Amino acid sequence: QPFNPGNFLVHAVSNIICSIIFGDRFDYEDKKFLTLIELLDENNKLQNSVQTQLYNFFPTIMDYLPGPHQKMIKNAEKVNQFTLEIIAEHQETLDPTCPRDFIDAFLNKMEQEKGNGHSEFTVETLSRTTLDLFLAGTGTTSTTLRHGFLILQKYPEIV
């Protein structure tokens, strides 16, 4: 029977990235995890709208106009809030001698740079970097794997 492995690939790739960034993976039925994936998927679809593309060029003006870009902004804020909650949990349970993941390593570097007024190691930078790694890694890697499967199906003699 034909099937679309897209969702399986997105979930698997997201979980691998979560284990690197957050130090933990999610159950595939976890509500938070599924909501996060849905928000990312919805934002990918919304990025094709004209309003969203205009928002990239004229963010100040577009902030006041209705359209799908407003939904994309709200979705991004929800994903950012999810990330900030995990960062806060990591700050409470941090053991500087035993970093568990990317967030712990970043928090350790933040502590080292505490006296430096020009340091870019802040919670905001951590949140944005974590978000970038998660968003960029999930979409591109799962799409690459999907295309790889298609190529292998078309040319089974390669295997």
Automatic annotation (TrEMBL):
Cofactor(s) essential for the protein: heme
Membrane topology reported for the UniProt record: Peripheral membrane protein
EC number: 1.14.14.1
One annotated GO biological process: epoxygenase P450 pathway
Enzyme class, broadest EC rank: oxidoreductase
This protein's UniProt keywords: Endoplasmic reticulum, Heme, Iron, Membrane, Metal-binding, Microsome, Monooxygenase, Oxidoreductase
Primary location group: endoplasmic reticulum
Record bears the keyword Signal: no
Keyword Endoplasmic reticulum belongs to the record: yes
Stored InterPro entries: Cyt_P450 (IPR001128), Cyt_P450_E_grp-I (IPR002401), Cyt_P450_sf (IPR036396), Cytochrome_P450_fam2 (IPR050182)
Subcellular location: Endoplasmic reticulum membrane; Microsome membrane
Family that this chain belongs to: Belongs to the cytochrome P450 family.
Protein name from the UniProt record: unspecific monooxygenase
Lineage: Eukaryota, Metazoa, Chordata, Craniata, Vertebrata
